[in-house]
Every structure is written in structure tokens, then in C-alpha cells.
Amino acid sequence: PRKHTARFELYRDHQGSWHWQLLASNSVPIAVSPKGYASKHGCILALRLIADAAKDCVIWNRDFEVWEYG
Fold first, then answer.
1. How far apart are CA 36 and CA 12, in angstroms?
2. What pTM does this model have?
3. Cβ atoms of 42 and 32 closer than 8 Å
4. Count of CB atoms situated within 10 Å of the CB of 10
5. What is the phi/psi pair of residue 21, to 5°?
6. What integer pLDDT is reported at residue 4 of this predicted model?
7. Helix/strand/coil (H, E, C) string of 9-31?
8. For 26, what's the count of Cα atoms within 13 Å in the CB-facing half-sphere?
9. Angle at Cα 68 formed by Cα 5 and Cα 20, nearest 5°?
């Protein structure tokens, strides 16, 4: 991977479930899987769904009930 880019990281917890986390370029977690996955393959499929959905994601500001742009 390129230096200074965000990345997904896979890991297993102490019970053997697979998890993902999205790390910012400074390695700080900015998103984590909401659950553990029984297989590494299932975990990768889930993180790919997140990555693909984020490309076309829009931002809704609930406080002001407006769409945010930019």
C-alpha cells in the first residue's frame, strides 16, 4: 500500500471471530466492524461492502436536517 493512506486491518479476537477496522493514515481507528465474523472470507466481504458503499455515500446532517456537500 501507499504510504500515508487509510487502510483496512483484519484481526481475530480471543474467541476466534474475525473483525475489521478502518485506520486513518496516522493509524488511528476511524471505523470498526459492528460484529465478529465466523470466517475471514465473510469479514473481507463485509469490509468490501463498506468500502464500495462509501464511494457513493451522501451525508445527512440530522441536527439541521440538511444534506451536506463538499
1. 8
2. 0.79
3. no
4. 14
5. -145, 145
6. 67
7. EEEECCCCCEEEEEECCCCCEEE
8. 2
9. 35
